[in-house]
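User: My collaborator sent over this chain with a note saying "see what the structure looks like." That's all I know about it. Can you take a look?
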Amino acid sequence: MLLLLATTGGLFSQEADPLVKRVSKDTSKVSLNMDAVYNRPFLAIKKMPIALGGYLEANSLYQSEDGISEGLSFQARRLTLFMSSSITKRIKFLTEIEFEDGTKEIGIEFAALDVSLHPALNFRGGIVMNPIGAFNQNHDGPKWEFVERPDVAVNMLPATWSNVGFGIYGKTHKGDWILGYEAYLTNGFDNSIIDNEENKTFLPAAKENAERFEESNNGKPLFSGKLTVKNRNIAEIGFSYMGGAYNKFEEDGLTLDEKRSVAVFAIDANAVIKNTGTYIVGEIAFVNVDVPETFTQQYGTKQWGAFVDVVQPVLQRSILNWENATLNVAARLDYVDWNVGTFQETGNKIGEEQIAISPAISFRPTAQTVFRINYRYQWQKDILANPAAKTAAWLFGFSTYF
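Assistant: Without extra context I'll predict from the sequence alone. Here is the result:
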C-alpha cells in the first residue's frame, strides 16, 4: 500500500509539475493517416531532448469453435513504447518498439529520421512502415473500438509491416482540400510467402524473417507508394501500391529461378457524418503473387479482402469527473479470400475464405483510453469450400495511451 501511494503520488506530482507537459500530437496542422506515427500523445519534460509515450492493450477472451471451447483466457496483447526527439531545426527522430504477448515477440516497428525541406517535400530514412492501406500506419489500439485487428490487415496483409529503407513524403492543401503522398524503397518479401506453415500464399509469413533488417533477400528493392486526398467536410481516401520481386532468383551470377513478383493494391477511406457523429472507416486490398507452376493450386495467385467499421456515439457527457466521456456502439464486417479462382480440373470455386461480423460497445472516459466489449462470429471455409467452421468469441478489454 505504501509503495502504491508513493507511486501514485509521484504521478500526481508529474501532472502538477509545470516542467512536464503532455503533447497530444505533432505540430502539423493538417492530419492524414500518413501523420499517425507522430499524431500521438507524448510526455515532454522541459529541457529534456526526448519526448516519451506508449500504449497498452489487454483483454479477456472466451471462444468456441463448432460448440467446443477451451474456456476463459486473459491476454496481454501488446505494450508499445515510442520516443521522439527534435534533433535540430527541420530534423526529428521517432522510434516505436512493441512487446507482444508479454515478451514473446519484441520488434522495432519504426525508427526513422525525418528531414523537413518543405511541407511538400520531406526525406525519411531508417525503419519505415510501408504505407499500404491505412491500418498499417494508423494501428494504435486506443484508436479502435475493437479488440481484434481487421482480418485483411493481419491475416492477408502483414500488419505493422516495416522495413529498412529511404523515401520521401509530403502534403499540400488549398481550402478544404488536402493532398498527401509517400514513396519509399525498402527491403521486402522473401520465399516464405509461398513456403510457410500455413501451406498457402500468406504474406504475413515474411514478418518472421528478421534478416530483412540487415539485407535484401534478392537485391531488388520493394517499392511502396501512396496518394491521399482529403476534404475536411467529406472524407479522406487513399490509394496505395506495394510491389517488387520476392524470390532469390540469382546468386553469385548464377540464375536460380525466374524473377517472381508480388504486388498489392489497396484503397482506404474514412469519414464522419457531422449531423450524427457517425464514424465510418474501411479498407480493401488486392494481392497478386507470381506462384511457380510447380506449386499446387492451394497456393493462390490472387487474394482480396476488406473490412468496414461503423462507430456511433450514443452518449457524450461528464461522468465521474471525466468531462468528455463517450459511450459508443459499433459494428465491423471482415472478409478475406486467400485463393481467388476455380479448380482447373473441376471448375468448382476454390474455398479458403473467411467472413466475420463483430458488434461492439465501447466506453471512452477520455479520447486516449477505451474500454470495449466485442462479440465476434466467424465463418471459415477450407480450400474445398466444405461447410464453414463456425467460431464465436466474447472479448472484453481495454487499450490506453500513457
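A starting point for your reply to your collaborator: The first helix runs from residue 2 to 16.
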